[in-house]
């Protein structure tokens, strides 16, 4: 039977571009020249990708349609299991550059030569949420780095918090089960504010230090670019003479530390669930490459013996004030992935991937992790050959006799696939005792048993130290976070149990939380295996606010505009931001933009409903009288102003903006964080003010 005639035009011209129609009417851009022919997986050219092969115009689809079957078959199997933890993540490529040789403490090849660059891949993540959950959940952030060194891949699989919830890996499944959605209802998603989580935590005193950290603003970072990273465990470094030093790894963001406010995080997750990934993507794509410096805390057995806590206990830090950080290099992220699945989803980190010159310690959490990361890749990536994938493959030469298995891209070449063998030069690789990996020959002895060392028993002292190291504003946020989370817990006994623990941390904090939950009576302090050491010195380095960057670089100003806006103010703001290295985004009643005072046109990036102030680090309201009158009728415009104020942001405004601000409820409360822009020269002063990032003093007046 003759096929139905397609009488639609073969091409369409829009502006200066011509599009050609395919068989089914789809268009291909031809401006760039030749277009490759669509093929099947095995390269057979495809003539029609719009219609399946049918027995007659209105008849059934035929099984012989290999192209159709291959396409649907492949689509049906596109998903692989998401990570059991850290499912939602975002990766980027970059490099590590050494500042100096560390030959004195390690023979690791990556640390031998100053100024040498080593390729790396990073994946940041949240822990509890599913792959499609929102970015600004209150959660720990994963900070995993794969260094492709000349002596093999080294994976530093850390977090943005330097301590962990548990001391022994055997508790990890319980912790994660409790933290993730409850098993019957499958909610809440990406939140620890529920009974199971706090039930587990309140029954696990070793998690108290981490509990304080996760209730701090560390778990609502402004973006991946503005957070620290930590290797958490104590590792070893071994130099060429075989001398071992203990080491803790730190990543310090050159952009500075910054977090958002909790109410802002809640709104951000609705306004842009991809806020963190978009931020990293946009920064890299625009050439503003984020950087972190790698710092080491190096110490010896003597320090370890004298330190108040066990250096093998992953629920403890070593304050920077006690062992200063030696900065040894920098990481620069300068390339986004080409394909999310191939790179970010399939990257397989393993704590077990270490290189000669680096070694493990007996931290029982680290030891358990070494099993888990290798094991999990099999169920996630489906084959023992996951290291054949480009993102996981080493960049240095590798030779081994492991062979076959699903999807093996390469196998040993030649006759020999075992050793020892007697095939001489054709017999393949051999081990090398001189250059090969050698474990530190630590003496081990003792009866077999299931132990928890007495030296791991102090669960409260460092939690207290962390709390006392925070600024007053940050302490307030910790109290608020506990009250918020525990208010979502339905069982009173669990709320009370947590307050009982807090009594061992800080009496004022416990009282604040008890009052905030409106407990009728305060519980007794929880029984402690070891009494809290109250004399530990605060560590100011643990505060985010006290260690701010004093720069607005890399941040974003949102400018709400209306028709008739003073072009001089807009131009001056833009110039001041460019100088600072910060971004600007225009928000208007309609995305098409506004006509400025001089008749020029300013295109907007957001319509007011899609550009709430939570998306910006600071805001400006530059409107004409008529514009303010129009905007004050719009709920989204009023929220824009009210939220910016409530989230302690710096606000610049033109005189005509006042009626809108009054309508948003802040007319009479203007404070030093609100800066009037009367003339273009004021723009510079405003951007300098923004270097404080937030006007936290306002918070007191909001309560
Ligand atoms: Fe883990 C993933 C970090 C304890 C078992 N972990 C994972 C990732 C990070 C961390 C950043 C995501 C890696 C990626 O982006 O692909 N995990 C940590 C830190 C821990 C920690 C800093 C404590 C100091 N983890 C931990 C324990 C266990 C695991 C105690 C099990 C005994 N972690 C896993 C895992 C995951 C994982 C199940 C899931 C996906 C993967 O490994 O590749 O094996």
UniProtKB/TrEMBL annotation:
Record domain Catalase core: where: 39-427
Biological processes, Gene Ontology terms: hydrogen peroxide catabolic process; response to oxidative stress
Biased composition (Basic and acidic residues): 440-449
One GO location term (cellular component): cytosol
Known cofactor(s): heme
PROSITE patterns assigned to the protein according to its UniProt record, in alphabetical order: CATALASE_1, CATALASE_2, CATALASE_3
UniProt-listed CDD domains: GATase1_catalase
Top-level taxon: Bacteria
Keyword terms, alphabetized: Heme, Hydrogen peroxide, Iron, Metal-binding, Oxidoreductase, Peroxidase
Record SUPFAM superfamilies: Class I glutamine amidotransferase-like, Heme-dependent catalase-like
Keyword Oxidoreductase: yes
The protein's enzyme class: oxidoreductase
GO MF entries: catalase activity; heme binding; metal ion binding
E.C. code: 1.11.1.6
Reactions catalysed according to its record: 2 H2O2 = O2 + 2 H2O
Record-linked Pfam families: Catalase (PF00199), Catalase-rel (PF06628), Catalase_C (PF18011)
Family statement: Belongs to the catalase family. HPII subfamily.
PANTHER family reported in the protein's UniProt record: CATALASE, CATALASE-B
Function comment: Decomposes hydrogen peroxide into water and oxygen; serves to protect cells from the toxic effects of hydrogen peroxide.
Protein name as annotated: Catalase
């Amino acid at each position: 039977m003759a096929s139905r005639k397609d009488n639609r035009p073969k091409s369409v011209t829009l502006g200066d571009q011509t599009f050609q129609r395919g068989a089914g009417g789809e268009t291909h851009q031809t401006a760039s020249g030749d277009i490759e022919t669509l093929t099947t997986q095995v390269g057979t050219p495809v003539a029609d990708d719009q219609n399946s092969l049918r027995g007659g115009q209105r008849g059934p689809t035929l099984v012989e349609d290999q192209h159709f079957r291959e396409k649907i078959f492949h689509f049906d199997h596109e998903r692989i299991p998401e990570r059991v933890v850290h499912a939602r993540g975002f990766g980027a490529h970059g490099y590590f550059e050494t500042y100096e040789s560390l030959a004195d403490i390690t023979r690791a090849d990556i640390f031998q030569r100053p100024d040498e660059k080593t390729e790396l891949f990073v994946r940041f993540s949240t822990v509890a949420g599913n792959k499609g959950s929102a970015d600004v959940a209150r959660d720990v952030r994963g900070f995993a780095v794969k260094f492709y060194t000349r002596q093999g891949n080294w994976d530093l699989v850390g977090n943005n918090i330097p301590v962990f919830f548990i001391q022994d890996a055997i508790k990890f499944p319980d912790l994660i089960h409790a933290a993730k959605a409850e098993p019957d209802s499958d909610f809440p998603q990406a939140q620890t504010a529920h009974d199971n989580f706090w039930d587990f935590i309140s029954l696990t005193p070793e998690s108290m230090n981490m509990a304080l950290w996760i209730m701090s603003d560390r778990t609502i970072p402004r973006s991946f670019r503005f957070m620290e990273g930590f290797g958490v465990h104590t590792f070893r470094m071994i130099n060429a003479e075989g001398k071992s030093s203990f080491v803790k790894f730190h990543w310090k963001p050159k952009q500075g530390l910054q977090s958002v406010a909790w109410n802002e995080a809640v709104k951000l997750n609705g306004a842009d669930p991809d806020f963190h990934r978009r931020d990293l993507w946009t920064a890299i794509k625009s050439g503003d490459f984020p950087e972190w410096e790698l710092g080491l805390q190096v110490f010896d057995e003597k320090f370890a013996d004298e330190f108040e806590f066990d250096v093998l206990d992953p629920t403890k830090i070593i304050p920077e004030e006690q062992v200063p950080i030696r900065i040894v290099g920098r990481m620069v992220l300068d390339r986004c992935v080409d394909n999310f699945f191939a790179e970010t989803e399939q990257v397989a980190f393993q704590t077990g991937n270490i290189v000669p010159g680096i070694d493990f310690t007996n931290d029982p959490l680290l030891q358990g992790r070494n099993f888990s990361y290798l094991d999990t890749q099999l169920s996630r990536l489906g084959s023992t050959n996951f290291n054949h994938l480009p993102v996981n493959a080493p960049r240095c030469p590798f030779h081994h006799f492991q062979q076959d298995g699903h999807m093996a891209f390469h196998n040993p070449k030649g006759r020999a696939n075992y050793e020892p063998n007697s095939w001489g030069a054709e017999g393949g690789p051999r081990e090398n005792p001189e250059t090969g990996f050698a474990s530190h020959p630590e003496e081990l002895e003792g009866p077999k048993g299931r132990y928890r060392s007495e030296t791991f028993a102090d669960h409260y002292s460092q939690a207290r130290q962390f709390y006392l190291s925070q600024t007053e504003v940050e302490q307030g946020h910790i109290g608020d976070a506990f009250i918020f989370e525990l208010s979502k817990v339905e069982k009173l006994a669990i709320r009370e149990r947590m307050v009982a623990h807090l009594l061992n941390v800080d009496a004022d904090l416990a009282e604040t939380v008890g009052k905030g939950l409106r407990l009728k009576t305060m519980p007794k302090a929880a029984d402690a295996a070891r009494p809290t050491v109250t004399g530990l010195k605060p560590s100011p380095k643990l505060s985010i606010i006290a260690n701010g960057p004093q720069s607005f670089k890399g941040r974003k100003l949102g400018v709400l505009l209306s028709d008739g806006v003073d072009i001089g103010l807009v131009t001056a703001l833009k110039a001041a931001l460019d100088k600072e290295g910060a971004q600007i985004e225009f928000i208007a009643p309609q995305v098409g933009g506004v006509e400025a005072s001089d008749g020029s046109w300013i295109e907007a990036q957001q319509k007011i409903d899609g550009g709430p102030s939570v998306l910006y680090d600071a805001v400006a309201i530059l409107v004409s009288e008529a514009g303010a009158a129009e905007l004050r009728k719009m709920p989204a415009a009023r929220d824009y102003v009210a939220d910016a104020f409530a989230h302690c942001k710096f606000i610049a405004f033109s005189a005509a903006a006042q009626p809108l601000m009054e309508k948003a409820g802040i007319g009479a409360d203007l404070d030093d964080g609100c800066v009037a822009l009367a003339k273009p020269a004021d723009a510079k002063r405003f951007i300098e003010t923004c270097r404080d990032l937030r006007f936290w003093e306002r918070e007191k007046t909001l309560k």
